[in-house]
User: Fold this.
Amino acid sequence: MEIRILELMHEALTNGSIMTKRDMFYKDPQLFFRQSIVDRYVDDIACTFGVQRHCLNVATFRSLAAKGYPDISTRSFLRLLATHPSVNEAQRPPMYGLVDFDPDSIGILSTYKYGSLALPHENEHLRVSSLSWLGVRSSAVFTADASGEGRGLIPMTSRDRRKARSLLDKPPFQEETDEAEWRRELQIMLMLNRKAEIQCMSDSDGGLEWWLGREIVTQYLARK
Assistant:
């Protein structure tokens, strides 16, 4: 593992690019197994050379979307942005959901758009029905990997599988609904027994930022 991480550090230094610890993990998740293993080796190597991580062109990845299942205040805020009566409908900002390719993330998307089973009496005033799914889909994960093998995919846990099956029984995920795509993606997860995080898109052509920009433009134009 240490040799592989040294190779990735050398690649970043040679190319003059910055590679996050998360990027490193997704270069070979089957080898590294856990993110914490990469973190430890990176820190050990930096300590051995007596330098800080940034001198090796390695940065720490911090997710801005790690809030988990949304609380009422977050849902209320997004609802306000999406439906405030003082804003002309044509001028309201489009609402996009960018989540990991795993059952919990699809569940989070569903909670924002349709509401929570735990608070059915609140859903009418909290749901954001205009929310569109930006990704990440299975097709994007496989496209990001030039080998077509989906190296960014991670084995699902038994809890992941239970969550996926539970979602498939819920109303938004039934066949012949507006969210048939959600159902299909959950079925793909179960069939492959794999999931992935957003950061795996760093390996796509142009990187995560280019892919995200392209998806936003594509969906925005589709609304016109």
Notes: The CA atoms of residues 15 and 214 lie 24 Å apart. The mean pLDDT is 79. The first helix runs from residue 2 to 15.
